[in-house]
Structures are given as structure tokens and as C-alpha cells.
């Protein structure tokens, strides 16, 4: 690198000296100035080629679709909104499979949804199910305890 700068410095100073009368002192000063200038130019600028990184193409399958409506609006008391077609249903599971050939897992992945936060049933429906489960005692199964 510094050899390259010296060569360039010599070329510039020689071409300059050939056009104008320089005293030995001026010549020395010119050599130093040109050399410093070239060194700062070359040293101060990073080579763009070294900075550029190769980027892999994004995998299209992993792209999450942007939901067409605010996510706050998709799960309501009376209905849950289908992000594929905008239909309002009490429960989406059967609809997704029939109308869009999507499993619930596919649907959640497609829109980057959290299944716990955005269930496929409306709030009223899930509340009814919870009540029903409680009445039937399903909520307490698995603990091996029986009510007297
Ligand atoms: Zn739909």
C-alpha cells in the first residue's frame, strides 16, 4: 500500500516539477504534501467492495401475510373474523378447512398470530364451552379426584 502511494507521489511531483521551476526545498515539501494527501485519501476511505455482503434471497414460504384488519378487531364477543375472506363466523376452524383448505396451525403461521391471543372462536362461544365443560366436570378431570 505505502509503496503504491510513493509511486503515485513520485509521478505527481515529477509531472508538476516538469511544468514549473521548483527549488529543492519546494520539491521536498511538495513530495511530503502529496504523499500525506494520498495516504489520508487511501487510508481514510474503506473500500466499498469489502463492505458489501452477499444476501441470500428471502424464503417466500416464511413470509407472514399482513392481516387486512387490525388484530384487535378479529376476535369479538359474537363473532371471529376470517382474515382470508373477511367473513364473520362464530367459529373459524371448519370454515378455514372448507373454504381455504387451511389447518388452524397454517392459518396462525400465515398471519403470524398467537393462538392463545387470537382463538378461532368468538368470545361468547368459548365462554359457553367453558361453562359447559365446567358443568360436565371436564375441567377437573385428570386429577384423579372425585366429588362425593
Ligand atoms: Zn374465510
List the helices and strands and how they pair.
Blueprint: H1 2-19, H2 24-44, H3 48-51, E1 80-81, E2 88-89, H4 93-100, H5 104-111, H6 123-136
Helix pairs in contact: 1-2
The structure holds zinc ion.
Zinc ion binds at residues 82, 84-85, 87, 95, 99-100.
The total count of helices amounts to: 6
Q: How many beta-strand segments?
A: 2
Output mean pLDDT.
83
Helix content: 40-55%
Terminus-to-terminus distance: 91 Å
Largest sheet, if any?
A: 2 strands, antiparallel
By CATH reckoning, the class of the largest domain would read Mainly Alpha
Q: In the CATH hierarchy, what is the architecture of the largest domain at level 2?
A: Orthogonal Bundle
CATH-assigned homologous superfamily of the largest domain: ROS/MUCR transcriptional regulator protein
What is the overall shape?
A: rod-shaped
Unreliable segments (pLDDT under 50, ≥5 consecutive)? 50-54
How much of the residues is beta strand, in percent? under 5%
Q: Ligands in the structure?
A: zinc ion
Element string (H = helix, E = strand): HHHEEHHH
Radius of gyration: 37 Å
Domains (count)? 2
CATH topology of the largest domain: Arc Repressor Mutant, subunit A
The strand order across the widest sheet is 1-2
> Class by helix and strand content?
mainly alpha
Amino acid at each position: 500500500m505505502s509503496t503504491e502511494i510513493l509511486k503515485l507521489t513520485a509521478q505527481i511531483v515529477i509531472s508538476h516539477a516538469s511544468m514549473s521551476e521548483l527549488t529543492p526545498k519546494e520539491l521536498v515539501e511538495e513530495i511530503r504534501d502529496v504523499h500525506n494527501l494520498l495516504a489520508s485519501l487511501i487510508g481514510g476511505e474503506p473500500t466499498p467492495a469489502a463492505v458489501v455482503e452477499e444476501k441470500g434471497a428471502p424464503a417466500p414460504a416464511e413470509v407472514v401475510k399482513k392481516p387486512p384488519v387490525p388484530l384487535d378487531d378479529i376476535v369479538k364477543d359474537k363473532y371471529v373474523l376470517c382474515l382470508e375472506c373477511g367473513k364473520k363466523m362464530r367459529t373459524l376452524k371448519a370454515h378455514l378447512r372448507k373454504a381455504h383448505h387451511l389447518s388452524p396451525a397454517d392459518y396462525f403461521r400465515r398471519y403470524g398470530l398467537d393462538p392463545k391471543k387470537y382463538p378461532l372462536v368468538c368470545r361468547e362461544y368459548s365462554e359457553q364451552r367453558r361453562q359447559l365443560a365446567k358443568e360436565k366436570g371436564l375441567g377437573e378431570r385428570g386429577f384423579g379426584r372425585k366429588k362425593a
